[in-house]
Amino acid sequence: MTGLKVIDSHTEGEPTRIIVAGGPDLGHGSMAERRRIFASTHDAVRRCALHEPRGWDALVGALLCEPVDSSCAAGVIFFNKAGMLSMCGHGLMGLAVTLAHMGRINSGHHKVETPAGLVSFELLSQDTVRIANVPAYRHRHDIAVDVPGYGMVRGDIAWGGNWFFLTRQAPWPLEPRHIPQFTTYAQAIQDALNASGIGGADGAVDHIEIFGAPGDQSANARSFVLCPGGAYDRSPCGTGTSAKLACLAADGALAAGQPWVQESIIGSRFTAQYQPLERGRIAPTLTGRAWVMAEATLLRDKNDPFRDGMPTA
Length: 313
Ligand code: PYC
Hints:
Blueprint: E1 2-11, E2 14-21, H1 31-41, H2 43-50, E3 60-65, E4 74-80, E5 83-84, H3 89-101, E6 108-114, E7 117-123, E8 128-132, E9 137-147, E10 151-159, E11 163-167, H4 179-196, E12 199-200, E13 203-204, E14 207-212, E15 221-226, H5 238-251, E16 260-263, E17 269-276, E18 282-300
Parallel strand pairs: 2-3, 4-6, 11-14, 15-16
Antiparallel strand pairs: 1-2, 1-18, 3-4, 4-5, 6-7, 7-8, 8-18, 9-10, 10-11, 12-13, 14-15, 16-17, 17-18
The structure holds pyrrole-2-carboxylate.
């Protein structure tokens, strides 16, 4: 029997399961190189941690790694039900409180290596984290895609650590009771983008982000985010909020340093802002809250037919 030691947290409602021991040996290369090895030779570990019967659709996973640069607090590889993620904003906040829970860090600033590049966070209190994400930028502006059953949907494509299609066309109020309709609608947009070959700079768009009016007037907007694999983000999505900042900056609709409060579909929020970088890129920072929920060892009995997770749709 082999086991994966995991610590579960949630960030503004969105869960993260971090493998802190028992994971595969991926060598000592960059996180991008280790992610490649993880995806090609250890996918059973990802499925064991996230798929039923040990996990569930919304769960985002992370493999805690030794960093290449020892001045970093950690290296991390994020993944979800469908495969690998380049970066994960809510997951980085979850990592921060998890490292504190493990006694590996104190409050203050810490750097983390990810496949998307170097990021950092500041642990502001036991449960509040400000992250500095990878540079974000808008890749395409106001493109139209014909979505069967819904008609033309217009939006931008932006990078925030993952690739996003962002649209303001929300056919229903952004309220939890409409989550099933938004999930179907967002999946239809994703399918239409895939079918028409519209994507990011290096491949497909992998997240769909739909905007509408905030539920609370102290916020700027509310969003629904569909992640690869079909689950929606319970948090406002860190990489998605970064992509949104890049679009706002490109439109001249938000000044550098001005706070942007983005609600999730369940009403949880991140407060974000940016500083301009060269060539239209921005450096996003986002603040949110995360809590450790559980510590467990996932057991994999060799006689268990579902030790590597159940097949999913
Ligand atoms: O917070 O960046 C994020 C994220 C990506 C997928 C789920 N959450």
